[in-house]
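Entry for P1T complex. Fields follow.
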Amino acid sequence: MSPSDSQTTGFGTRAIHAGQNPDPITGAVIPPVSLSTTFKQSAAGVHTGYEYSRSGNPTRENFETAVAALEGGKYGVAFASGSSVTATIINTLHSGGHLISVNDVYGGTYRYFTKVAVHNGVDATFVNLSNAANIKDKFKPNTKLVWLESPTNPTLRIIDIRAVAEYAHQNGAILVVDNTFMSPYFQNPLALGADIVVHSVTKYINGHSDVVMGVAVTNDKALYEKLTFMQNSMGAVPSAFDSFLARRGLMTLEIRMQRHEQNAKAIAEFLQKNEHVEEVIYPGLPSHPEHELAKRQQRGFGGMISFRVKGTLDNVNKMLGNLQHITLAESLGGVESLVEVPAVMTHAAVSAEDRAALGITDTLVRFSVGIENVEDLVQDLQQALDKAY
Ligand code: P1T
């Protein structure tokens, strides 16, 4: 598929064909996994474009091309995990730099900003961006970067990406958007003004809970060059085999996301009516505070739901202990349904005080709705909730 096709073809077509060129020697429709760590040169310094697998690998490049085509970006850069994308981007800031982050971010991102970046001289300010204007007076002369997730993890607040991009650019900062929860199928932050979009590929993009990997996409050549320089210098690259699996996962992203969303909508409606549930947070529900913004900014509402049950952590644990098809585990975005309790699992790195301010209570449950038959998921929740009280 030529690069120009990536502007005109549909999402599903790009997900299958972008970067996926049949092998020129054998004609293999699925190109073989390129496992070699090094590439033969015809004379010293004369090579095919590949020298050493950390700096460039054909299987990784296939994946990077495909994700870039799905995000509407020119350049994709893959990493060994979502967390190493964060680390690599923050390492492009020099000591003395300042970043602004949405206050409700993945616990590991919060941990990196507060416990690692700070030792390298990079300071972070956390802001509630539910009202984008809250960022206005947070910029400092050394603010280089604004970081946000939308929907946020785990309270699923929707941030006005276009408005935050404008504030960032007016103040000479770039905007990085973590698009993990939406996947490129439901949202393209670059089209809303973001300078870099990042994903934990571990989640929807790979989609089968068997790869840890990350990716960044940009349209800016200078940022791309910085990222590839850091990718090679820091060396947090994915293996060829993981790149192959993630590229394979991408081929079904469209139909998986459609089913994730269909199931999530039905489950959000079921939970809303359940007597043991206090609150259901799903951007697709008209009761969600940013439902209208989500409708404008996204092409759908995704497969993530958070809900607050009545009672205490004891009730939550009883419910979780009785689930039969839905698994208690961290992570999200796989074909199987997963639930977790952010306060004691993914967001344990956030202080108790900050968790309370964000509404990450012990009774908040995050549900990554899988693509099983929805009747089974509803029945499983129903019986587990009944047994918990
Ligand atoms: O796990 P890793 O591939 O390193 O990705 C980190 C990451 C980045 N951004 C978001 C929005 C994420 O949710 C994550 C990882 N999150 C989980 C493991 C979780 O259960 O929320």
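NOTE: Residues 81-83, 106, 108-109, 149, 153, 178, 180, 200, 202, 212, 214, 330-332, 346 surround P1T (CB under 6 Å).
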